[in-house]
């Protein structure tokens, strides 16, 4: 599938960025992973594995393969894989590019339809940012023959500030279907990015969990969100009502989603992965034994009850 066809397949669709279920020892229980993948796959239009919500760059090769296989088996719609440099390759552009291409090869071998390219650390240097960003996306796509999307991520999570001019140039490339936006709190940057992506002929894909409804109103064409890692019905209703031009339904869906987002996407922000696993636990699509995130910071014990209560309000 070329990038234009892939963009068409994503338009108006809800893509989940699922978590990776683990037990207290950090292990993946295969049956729990498969059950979770089946539940998420049934509730969304497509899936992006190995994203930040999944701790994708922290997964081992064996874990990465297991996650991709589970979601490929449960997802009829588009399946993306997020690819970025391994920690031991960070710092040098050439090493990062090779590392990303290797993950891309694994993704293609496992049946991914497209790739989302993490903003690599070597792209931060202003002088070389534009040329290296374009080259990273083009060469990763060429290495496996799959379309790619960019990833505009907020700086506190390791993002690189792709300016509007770079976004226009990036999405004008035939290999690039669009860009996922995850600016978190910067409404102006999100709006400017959507306008630039459209100016370049690309698909603006919202990943704005705390500005989900507004980003659709600003012109986002599709969604790829971590808040759909559980309680997919909340995100699905927001998308359905917006694209159906159901104003009253959209307002009600926005209010429901905001209650859930307020409980899960908050400081410390890296704790959102654990909070979404708690939502999945409360929803009954994950057992308590597999609702752990070993890579995030330790959260206050009372947060779990608050997250469960927020889910109960949206159920």
UniProtKB/TrEMBL annotation:
Top-rank taxon: Bacteria
Key words of the record: Lyase
InterPro entries (UniProt xref): Aldolase_TIM, DapA-like
SUPFAM superfamilies documented for this protein: Aldolase
Protein name: Dihydrodipicolinate synthase family protein
Lineage: Bacteria, Bacillati, Actinomycetota, Actinomycetes, Mycobacteriales
């Amino acid at each position: 599938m070329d990038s234009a066809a892939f963009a068409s397949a994503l338009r108006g669709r809800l893509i989940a960025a699922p978590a990776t279920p683990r037990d207290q020892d950090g292990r993946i229980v295969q049956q729990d992973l498969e059950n979770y993948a089946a539940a998420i796959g049934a509730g969304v239009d497509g899936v992006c594995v190995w994203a930040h919500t999944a701790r994708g760059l922290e997964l081992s090769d064996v874990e990465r393969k297991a996650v991709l296989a589970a979601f490929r088996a449960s997802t009829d719609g588009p399946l993306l894989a997020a690819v970025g440099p391994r920690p031991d390759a960070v710092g040098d552009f050439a090493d990062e590019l090779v590392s990303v291409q290797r993950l891309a090869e694994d993704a293609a071998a496992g049946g991914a339809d497209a790739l989302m390219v993490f903003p690599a650390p070597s792209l931060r240097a202003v002088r070389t940012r534009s040329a290296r960003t374009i080259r990273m996306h083009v060469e990763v796509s060429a290495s496996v023959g799959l379309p790619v999307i960019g990833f505009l991520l907020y700086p506190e999570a390791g993002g690189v500030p792709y300016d509007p001019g770079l976004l226009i140039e990036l999405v004008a490339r035939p290999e690039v279907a669009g860009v996922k936006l995850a600016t978190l709190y910067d409404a102006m940057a999100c709006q400017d990015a959507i306008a630039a992506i459209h100016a370049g002929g690309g698909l603006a894909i919202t990943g704005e969990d705390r500005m989900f409804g507004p980003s659709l109103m600003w012109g986002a064409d599709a969604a790829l969100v971590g808040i759909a890692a559980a309680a997919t019905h909340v995100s699905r209703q927001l998308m359905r009502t917006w694209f159906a031009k159901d104003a009253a339904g959209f307002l009600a869906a926005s209010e429901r989603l905001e209650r859930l987002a307020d409980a899960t996407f908050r400081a410390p922000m890296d704790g959102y992965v654990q909070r979404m696993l708690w939502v999945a636990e409360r929803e009954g699509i994950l057992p308590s034994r597999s609702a752990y995130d070993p890579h995030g910071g330790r959260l206050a014990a009372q947060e779990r009850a608050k997250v469960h209560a927020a889910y109960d309000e949206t159920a």
